[in-house]
TrEMBL record:
GO terms for biological process: amino acid biosynthetic process; aromatic amino acid family biosynthetic process; chorismate biosynthetic process. Pathway: Metabolic intermediate biosynthesis; chorismate biosynthesis; chorismate from D-erythrose 4-phosphate and phosphoenolpyruvate: step 6/7. It is found in: Cytoplasm. The gene is aroA. NCBIfam families: aroA. This is 3-phosphoshikimate 1-carboxyvinyltransferase. GO terms for cellular component: cytoplasm. InterPro entries: Enolpyruvate_Tfrase_dom, Enolpyruvate_Tfrase_sf, EPSP_synthase, EPSP_synthase_CS, RNA3'P_cycl/enolpyr_Trfase_a/b. Residues 10-422 form the Enolpyruvate transferase domain.
């Protein structure tokens, strides 16, 4: 991917209506379950991001026919639980931890060998968290030194249903184990230290697989079948998060975000921003096929720093880059603790945000599991997104509050989760322009 920068600066108040792209987590899962189901699954609102497109390509490499009649739509012709074919080469997950970890569970149960590879960032991310518990079920998966990708998965291993008690709150790990559990003999159960997003459980049930779950627990047995169903993907709350913060911190803003997914395991940022003083109204809430969706009206409001409750951390795990920006624009200090997982995302997000916000004049004291953040953002400058989509978007939002322009370097990976962010943001009022990176 070519290196790309943004030049961001205070623009106009954010106004009008914005529809963010489809949810990444739901799009990945819809493809995977659609592929393993019997019949044709029609997905609407599919995220046309590099991460989800990589997952689609991987499934195609294993013989699944996926049509894309129009952008945002996929018709997945399911091959049934045992219908995948051995791929010819390595399967490239690109930047996507979700793709790799979920597919590791799914591939552990296949009759054929496979290899999962990723880009430079993904190749440094911890995989033992899935490889070890899958190993306890009978899977044989090799990693590179240090427990990082590539993952070499040996096919033809009988899997045994196992009770897992997870050390980290991770929907990716839980989902990998449940997907392996589809192929296991007996019952697979997962207990989490804190509840995480439950899309895999919900979607398995929608595809007709018996699953029992409650916050923090999930269990299923092997030996059933998945039946194709249609999936309506809501707008991604994690993408909406950047607009929620931008409209909150830019005076005069009044923005409507339409069709945003409001799963309670995803909306911790809403709670945190409200505690800081944000003015966000939930309008036209509706529930369709078990998915909560609403429009969010957000108006500018002055913010005050808070201590983010640790219990909220898994419910806003992807929203901390945006929260850090809100904190740097707030009066007083904001304390984040219990969020060590941020250090093993697409980048070390605590370090990346600390360095970026300090460059713009904020004070950020790092801790191993969080930070204390104090504003204001008092200058412009050049900051590094480190190829991490959410760091790039967060720093562009930060630049809406700086007295001078900010160059955000290395932003091309925004296309993994939010293609078109720059033009949507500029259309809503943010000062943001794409610039080729200097040689
Ligand atoms: C995801 C789970 C989260 C999140 C990621 C998507 C998922 O990761 O950070 O962006 O779709 O299951 P962890 O569950 O590992 O925290």
């Amino acid at each position: 991917m070519d290196r790309q920068d943004w030049v961001a600066r205070p623009g106009r108040p954010l106004r009008g209506r914005v529809r963010v792209p489809g949810d990444k987590s739901v799009s990945h899962r819809a493809l995977m379950l659609g592929a393993l189901a019997e019949g044709e699954t029609r997905i609407h609102g599919f995220l046309e991001g590099a991460d989800t497109v990589a997952t689609a390509r991987i499934l195609e490499q294993m013989g699944v026919r996926i049509e894309a009649p129009t952008p945002g739509v996929r018709h997945v012709h399911g091959v049934g639980l045992h219908g995948l074919r051995a791929p010819e080469g390595p399967l490239d997950c690109g930047n996507s931890g979700t793709g790799m970890r979920l597919l590791a569970g799914l591939l552990a149960g296949q009759a054929f060998d496979s290899e999962l590879v990723g880009d430079r960032s993904l190749s440094t991310r911890p995989m033992r968290r899935v490889v070890d518990p899958l190993g306890a079920m009978g899977a044989r998966i090799g990693t590179a030194d240090g427990g990082v990708p590539p993952l070499r998965i040996q096919g033809g291993q009988p899997l045994l249903g196992t009770d897992h008690v997870l050390a980290v709150a991770s929907a990716q790990v839980k989902s990998a184990l449940l997907l392996a559990g589809l192929y296991a003999d007996g019952r697979t159960s997962v207990v989490e230290p804190r509840p995480t997003r439950d899309y895999t459980e919900r979607m398995l049930a929608a595809f007709g697989w018996p699953v029992e779950w409650s916050p923090g627990r999930a269990a299923l047995g092997g030996g059933h079948r998945l039946v194709a169903t249609d999936v309506e993907v809501p707008g991604d709350f994690s993408s909406a998060a950047f607009f929620l913060v931008a409209a909150t911190v830019v005076p005069g803003s009044d923005l409507l975000l339409t069709g945003v997914g409001l799963d309670p395991r995803r909306t911790g940022l809403l709670e945190a921003l409200r505690r800081m003083g944000a003015d966000i109204e939930v309008l036209a809430a509706r529930s369709r096929a078990g998915t909560e969706t609403a429009d969010l009206r957000v108006r500018h409001a002055p913010l005050s720093g808070i201590e983010v409750p640790e219990a909220l951390v898994p419910d806003m795990i992807d929203e901390f880059p945006a929260l850090f920006v809100a904190a740097a624009c707030a009066r007083g200090e904001t304390v984040v603790r219990g969020a060590a997982e941020l250090r093993v995302k697409e980048s070390d997000r605590i370090a990346a945000m600390a360095v970026g916000l300090r460059e713009l004049g904020a004070t950020v004291d790092e801790a191993p599991d969080g930070a204390v953040i104090r504003g204001p953002l008092s200058r412009g400058g050049t900051v590094e997104a480190l190829g991490d989509h959410r760091i790039a978007m967060a720093l562009a939002v930060a630049a809406q509050c700086t007295p001078a322009p900010v160059r955000v370097r290395d932003v091309a990976n925004v296309a993994t989760s939010f293609p078109g962010f720059a033009s949507l943001a500029a259309g809503a009022g943010m000062g943001l322009a794409e610039e080729p990176a200097p040689e």
